[in-house]
Amino acid sequence: MLTRRIIPCLDIKDGRTVKGVNFVQLRDAGDPVELAATYANQGADELVFLDISATTENRKTLTELVKKVAARINIPFTVGGGISSIKDVTPLLEAGADKVSLNSSAVKNPELIDELAKEFGSQFVVLALDARKIDNQWIIHTHGGRYATEKKLFSWAKDVQNRGAGEILFTSMDHDGTQSGFAIDPLQKLNQLLSIPVIASGGAGHPVHFADAFLTGKADAALAASVFHFGEIRIPELKLFLKTNQIPVRL
User: What's the gap between Cα 47 and its chain centre?
Assistant: First the structure.
């Protein structure tokens, strides 16, 4: 088994880190620059920064804030929110991003995935798939979970892989913020379907949930927010727990 990654996520709104339940009821979780520095020092493997209101507010990602975060960390850094063209990417790269995350813009214009993969390489392109189960189907949602689309999770995941995405960030909107555990069944199916890494997101509440995502869900990485932001789980203790359960992690 390859080394599994632990990834804190900073959901940013109005320059602050926020966290909600099922993508709503947002509450303040702290300063993103200080949180990022803390997670890097604790041993996080990567960091994800999502400007969650950039698309709905029809603006670009907060580049200056990205620059401040990048200056305080020494781990891979994925940035998403408001990216709709190649020209949106260069300022983020210059600000310190290692990868970019797409969701709404890729659903609207799937060719953007091809263009970014060709221009910067597949390893640079992360596809965020926010999905909710409706009538027994996992349906992709956009604009911070506000709008259901006609795209189904598994067929869309296969499509974005074929277009050049290097990684999938799958968030179960039904599990998000509930701390009831990750959505294991769709994780398993994505792992079977795809040859690119899958990051589990939505539902972490206990170290055993991370172990389940890796051992049963076969995720390559696990992302969480509130349990880290509010001190319910510390990354060093989480990694020790995973290691004692024969899950390879970087200590």
Answer: 9
Going by C-alpha positions, the residue among 116, 251, 133 that lies closest to residue 189 is 133
Catalytic annotation on 14? no
Considering 45, 51, 88, 130, which one is annotated as catalytic?
A: 130
Global confidence as pTM: 0.92
The identity of residue 7, as a single letter, is I
Q: Is 136 exposed, middle or buried (CB count within 10 Å of its CB: 0-12, 13-18, 19+)?
A: exposed
Which letter does DSSP use for residue 221 in this model? Answer: E
Alpha helix (H) residue ranges in the chain: 32-42, 63-70, 86-95, 104-108, 111-120, 153-163, 184-193, 207-215, 226-229, 235-244
pLDDT 10s digits, 4-62 = 999 999 988 877 878 655 544 555 667 899 999 999 999 999 999 988 665 545 445 57
Positive or negative, the CA dihedral 172, 67, 126, 90 is: positive
pLDDT in tens, 48-71: 998 866 554 544 557 888 999 999
| Number of helices (H), then strands (E), in the chain | 10, 12
**Alpha-carbon span 47 to 75, nearest angstrom:** 7
Tokens of 27: 């509450």
Residue 157 and residue 163: Cα distance in Å, rounded? Answer: 10
Catalytic (active site) residue 130: yes
Contact 213, 200 (CB under 8 A): yes
Domains and CATH numbers, the chain: 5-244 (3.20.20.70)
